Q: What sequence folds into this?
């Protein structure tokens, strides 16, 4: 069973950057496609970015394309989300999970990490 722990969130001004990390336990992590999701207050959880098990393929929601970059280090069992040019609309709790396409796949949700962007 894979367990996920997100970290790296915080308070940042608009235009700033943050790098989120998702540390996974379990030997099968390197075989999973992984993704980042976010949930803003009063809104449903939404897909942000995904990466194939090898790291060879990445894909993004239109709202973050060109600003966010997803990557992974299978040797460290970690997935990253580099967030640049942050906007107040990016404020949310960010989660990682296994994905199939842009959909979550399996109940591997961690506690999430809060990102707050001030204007």
A:
């Amino acid at each position: 069973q894979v367990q996920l722990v997100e970290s790296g969130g915080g308070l940042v001004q608009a235009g700033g950057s943050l790098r989120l990390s998702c540390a996974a336990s379990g030997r099968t992590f390197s075989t999973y496609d992984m993704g980042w999701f976010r949930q803003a207050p009063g809104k449903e959880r939404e897909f942000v970015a995904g990466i194939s098990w090898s790291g060879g393929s990445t894909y993004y929601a239109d709202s973050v394309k060109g600003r966010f970059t997803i990557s992974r280090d299978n040797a460290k069992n970690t997935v990253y989300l580099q967030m640049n040019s942050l906007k107040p609309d990016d404020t949310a709790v960010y989660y990682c999970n296994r994905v199939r396409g842009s959909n979550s796949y399996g109940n591997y949700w961690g506690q999430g990490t809060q990102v707050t962007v001030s204007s």
Notes: The mean pLDDT is 95. Residues 15 and 85 are 4 Å apart (CA to CA).
